[in-house]
Amino acid sequence: MEILLVEDEPSVISLIERGLKGENHSISIAMDGFTGLKMAGLHTYDLIILDVMLPGMNGLDICRNIRMANKDVPILILSALNQTEDIVEAFNRDADDYLTKPFKLDELRARINRHSRKARMQAPPSNTITIDNLTIDRDSKHVERGSKAIVLTATEYRLLEYLMINKNKVLSRIDILEEVWGMDFNMSTNVVDVYVNYLRKKVDHPFERKLIHTVIGMGYVLRNEN
């Protein structure tokens, strides 16, 4: 993979370079935010790894700016900030993954490999899912309910897509964390509940029929109660 690492700590850079040596990855380094954003715009990468606290521009602002031009490149936030609100804010900026420092190289490798596998997967030719009057087009990422278009962040979209693919199946928080966020990166956070509430406000609250349901003690399910 072609990886852009935006990180200002030489020890972390060295650790990642040594840890990924011999795994067929090419790593480009930027040690400040402005340089990282410029490199992301000039070159095509298979994965971008962003620290949050950077000189010049922080990683979350870089993430948002990258997303304005490139909706597909996976972005992994690598940060010492480990509170729920920090993680939620990163996904609100359309990050795909979040790994807290200090981290284990095996976990970083696993996440990189997962993004590599997903990049190799080909989408099926017919990619529309409809449940009740809710429809997603998995090619264009367009979501609408009735005749109303629904604007979702990248993380909200992945969560809705996962719920719709598994219509009528109760999904535990662990299931959702592993599929939507890639890993059970911090089982003590309530990030799943936060994002389900985000979805409900956009997908359910404006409509009479509710599709997203809580199964107490078990998880969440998307189904048409009628």
TrEMBL record:
InterPro entries, per database record: CheY-like_superfamily, OmpR/PhoB-type_DNA-bd, Sig_transdc_resp-reg_receiver, WalR-like, WH-like_DNA-bd_sf
OmpR/PhoB-type domain sequence ranges: 126-224
Alphabetized UniProt keyword annotations: DNA-binding, Phosphoprotein, Transcription, Transcription regulation, Two-component regulatory system
Transcription regulation as UniProt keyword: yes
Coiled coil: none
Keyword S-adenosyl-L-methionine: no
UniProt modified residues of type 4-aspartylphosphate: D51
Entry superkingdom: Bacteria
Span of domain Response regulatory: 2-116
DNA-binding region: 126-224
Pfam families per UniProt: Response_reg (PF00072), Trans_reg_C (PF00486)
Protein name: Response regulator transcription factor
Source organism of the structure: Sphingobacterium suaedae
